[in-house]
Amino acid sequence: MNPKRELEQAYHSGRISRRDFIQRSALIGATIALPGSLLSGAAQAEMKRGGVLRLGMGGGSTTDTIDPGTHTDSVAITIERSMRSYLTEVAPNGDLIGELATAWESKPGATEWTFELRNDVEFHDGQALTANDVIYSIQHHIREGSTSAVAGQMGKIAEMKADGDHVVHFTLSEGNADFAWLVSDYHVSVFPANGGWEAGIGSGPYSLVNYEPGVRAELKRNDNYFKEGRPYFDGVEVTVIADAAARDNALKTGQVDATNRVSQRTAHLLDKAPGVNVHKIVGTKHYTVPMLTNAPPFDNVKVRQALRLAVDRDALLKTVLGGHGQVGNDLPIGRNQEFYNTELPQREYDPDQAAFILKEAGLSGLSVELSAADAAFDGAVDAAVLYAEHAKAAGININVIRESNDGYWSNVWQQKPWCMCYWSGRPTQDWMWTIAYESGGAWNDNNWENEQFQSLLKQARVEVDAAKRKDMYWEMQRLHWEEGGTVVPLFAADLMGVSNKLLLPDVIGSDWELDGQRCSERWSFA
Amino acid sequence: MGLTRLIFNRFIFGLITLLAITLLISLALEALPGDFAEQRLGQSATPETVAAIRDQLGLNKPVLVRYAEWLGKFVQGDMGVSLSNNRPVAELLATRLGNTLFLAVASAIVAVPLALLLGIVAALYRETLLDKLISTTTLAAISLPEFFIGYILVALLAVNWQIFPAISSISDSMSLGEKIYASLLPIATLTFVIVAHMMRMTRAAIINLMQSPYIEMATLKGLKRFHIIVHHALPNALSPIINVIVLNLAYLVVGVVVVEVVFIYPGLGLLMIDSVTSRDLPIVQACILIFGATYITLNMLADILAIICNPRMRHPR
Questions:
Q1: How many angstroms separate the CA atoms of B22 and B35, rounded?
Q2: Running along chain B, 317 residues long, what does each successive block of 10 average in pLDDT?
Q3: CA-based torsion, A298, A304, A306, A309: positive or negative
Q4: Would the pTM count as exceeding 0.80?
Q5: How many CB atoms lie within 10 A of CB A35?
Q6: A149, B44 contact by CB (below 8 A)
Q7: Do A62 and B169 touch (CB under 8 A)?
Q8: Which value does ipTM take for this structure?
Q9: Is A255 close to B165, i.e. CB distance below 8 A?
Q10: Is the dihedral of CA A24, A26, A27, A30 positive or negative?
Q11: Which entry of A140, A266, A445, A462 is 20 to 30 Å from B185 by CA?
Q12: Residues 194-223 of B with CB under 8 A from A
């Protein structure tokens, strides 16, 4: 929360250069001139064993389960990540590292993949992990009649074969150079073939002792965990607290040690409370306003360009997010992500230009409807109303339609020609573009059929040469920035409240909340 | 004779009402946008996965068929399983209902005697400063929304002075004492909310009777005012008071959702909100049945008690 801490974060995760770090430190008047630990990263804070981590979390419901295919929200994911392990892991700095897998490689074309597994992993009941467990676990998502949320995403796996106990071969129906990233998805955990997910065990840092969905969960340390020295806590207690004010209070009174989803409106107050710090992490979570580009008037590229110019992103950032985030540049890719096109200028609010574009196209006095509900994101309706106000200056009339929160994702999103939406983002370019922008994708919410873009997406997916990939992704971003159908006005920060009794690593993961939902494994008491 | 017959009639009507409620709820949930499969998958829904979930849970059948199936099982004592995680509804409800009843009973133990006492005192010192103070305070408390009272109590007693816990996340592993301590703030909040209604009714009913000739007689006999109120006025004022008390007790069971949210108290209300949001019909039905049955039973109880306390109704001519 304090600018100094934020800067350190950014520097550690490689989001800003050393030079930037020094310059910006000077700007905020911070007295930290690159302490040794910051430079080397070697002097990691000393993690200590012991204590029970008590989390107060929003994003849990009575309907949560331990079936990894059903997870959609934060509490279930935190429990999953504490209880079970994955083939690969997104490290705090954004790199992909192995978890159950020690190494992986693909043949050219990226359709054939081989993962080598650790040979020292045991499930909580003492069974040794083998290649069969991995195959069984992934089969859960792609079998006939699967109800898994990643059925589509993992469906490209055509065949899985075990080679001995510790090697798995995958054959994909369509090459994917980022396949190793896909198996780090929070749904794709590994559980024992003997017992299945129903057994409620895994090989994670904690085992589940007690779980009352929507109320609380209790986990205890797995003394047999395969990562040396980890985890640091003796146990974890998750209390589901849906109300943001109640989470703040629980943290202030010391009933919990950390909370997720601090309200943007009260973050500054919580940060002032004694013994509590608010951490702000900007990752890949972004708010979008997708247009169905095959529906009039959005099928006209001039309309899309005008509407993108007609929103004051800075004002939205200030009002809707209380400044906790970054303005978006009409790209669903975070500024710190690999292959982000840094040459594209930030799109600014320019009502005159928008009016000019429309006038040239003979569309002056354009009137459109924008569907919004807070189900899209907290403050979506406010954002839509502000958008409409900003667009007035360009002579565009935006009629905001207030939709019901219930069924928003089935009845409004992908159905109404223009609506509010959010994406938690994905760690790779291919993943993000594929799920929401590829032609014919199940979650495509813009139907933007640009031939060049679609063909580049397919080429880049199987391209293993990083330099060539970069060129392709830069070109795709340029195309989308110029003609695409989705306005991306904001990247939202995750705010978490943390007691100063806890010791956090210098670098905190920005994929998902609470350190990539792995706080139970990465944090300790001071 | 009259009383038994009345109870029997009311019982039958109660059952019919409950049946009607369950049907209404089924239709209402069906009318809401999005079904269980779509709500569960949210943004990540694809046509295939939605169809797979509907297939697995039999959600493709018409709503009346599903209702009939549910009813058929229910009358045999099978409340079904949660659509989301296959947990038996009965098991899921047991803990939550226990928690809700615990909070309701604890609040009633504090609030009802307090309201009666305040009502009597207010009637005794009618039109004095004390009476006005009691009325103003309780009416002010009932006029504020529950969450506001809850947050004020938390801000003062939990955050500022750190006397009580801010969240009341009680669990089975806690002892009775721990549970009571953890629930003190929600109990206080509920007390604030319901005392005014009962207190005003007590005061009004007693004052109303104080004009009666037999009270004048008692006064002329030289009895003390407190004695007159407790022994002569109160018994005759009981039936309207009991009515109000019982209605407030019903409120303690069915109306505490907001308090549960503020204090993260794991009761029935939170369970029902979650279940309605996810369209988990078996749980919603069970919650509604409990809430409906509570209201109907307590209303019936109010009428019966009113008859018992009133000799004229007990022995109709």
A1: 18
A2: 77 89 87 80 78 82 86 84 83 88 92 91 87 89 88 89 86 86 91 89 87 88 86 84 88 84 87 85 87 87 81 67
A3: positive
A4: yes
A5: 10
A6: yes
A7: no
A8: 0.82
A9: yes
A10: positive
A11: A266
A12: none
